[in-house]
Design brief:
This protein is mainly beta and about 120 residues long. It contains no helices and eleven strands.
Length: about 120
């Protein structure tokens, strides 16, 4: 059974840093990309960053230069390093895995990131 378990969300001051982790406890074949989305109160869920199995990355314009997505294949874990955090980064962050075989997408339960100004 696939389960994406996120951790690392917290309350941090503006300018601070956080590192989110997403551990995949199962096996997901045919991965198209894995990444992070976020949803702020009253807003739609939006892409933050994602990575293909080959290592290609894509970032939202609002986080370019501040956030970095990476992975540890041995631990089946995806990370999101967030630096220079701003109040507008406050949201629930969700781990996501999309496939090209028609299954999924798979979502984690979400982790809260709150940035105080």
């Amino acid at each position: 059974q696939v389960q994406l378990v996120e951790s690392g969300g917290d309350l941090v001051h503006a300018g601070g840093s956080l590192r989110l982790s997403c551990a995949n406890t199962g096996s997901i074949p045919s991965v198209l990309h894995m990444g992070w989305y976020r949803q702020a109160p009253g807003k739609e869920r939006e892409l933050v960053a994602r990575m293909t199995p080959g290592g290609s990355t894509e970032y939202a314009d609002s986080v370019k230069g501040r956030f970095t997505i990476s992975r540890d294949n041995a631990k089946n874990t995806v990370f999101l390093q967030m630096n220079s955090l701003k109040s507008e980064d406050t949201a629930v962050y969700y781990c996501n895995v999309a496939t090209w075989n028609g299954r999924g997408p798979y979502w984690g339960q979400g982790t809260q990131v709150t940035v105080s100004s």
